[in-house]
Amino acid sequence: MDTVLIEGDITAQRVDAIVNAANSSLLGGGGVDGAIHRRGGPAILAECRALRASRYGRGLPTGQAVATTAGELPARWVVHTVGPVFSPREDRSALLRDCYANSLRIADELGAARVAFPLISAGIYGWPVEDAVTQALTVLHAATPAHVVEARVVLFGADTYATAVRVAAGLS
């Protein structure tokens, strides 16, 4: 599987599955989550409400992933995952890696060939960008999915992209 870094808007990615850095309610929010719900339209929210009414009455647990339609996005599916809030006192990096691994597994089970990931937890959840990139690339570089041939990490903003490129070069 190829892993590529792209600067841009995740909602504009023409892929099979877009990963959403969701909150546990699955009902939309700010940042990536809000952008995906706004651009994808009401079909995504309708499926998220159905998931809350059935399997996830208490919300989607941190590190887990679940798929819905992509609505009006240029993709077939949205894979929602809940990243951990960063804590300087508690190592939650395993939960962050679980977000990538579980999202990739769900996308692969759906038969997705191309998947776009945001930098999970690096926004309002406060995860330091350098470490968020390291956690993402550690999982994606080690993965051997059956169907996914490309994982895109879509980075919002030139500074975040430049940091990701620097971190990726150091991991090579």
From TrEMBL:
EC number: 3.1.1.106
Classification via SMART domains: A1pp
Keyword list, A-Z: Hydrolase
Classification via Pfam families: Macro
Uppermost EC category: hydrolase
PROSITE patterns linked: MACRO (PS51154)
InterPro entries according to UniProt: Macro_dom, Macro_dom-like
A molecular function GO annotation: O-acetyl-ADP-ribose deacetylase activity
Residue ranges occupied by any Macro domain in the UniProt entry: 1-172
Protein name: O-acetyl-ADP-ribose deacetylase
Species per Swiss-Prot/TrEMBL record: Micromonospora maritima
Lineage: Bacteria, Bacillati, Actinomycetota, Actinomycetes, Micromonosporales
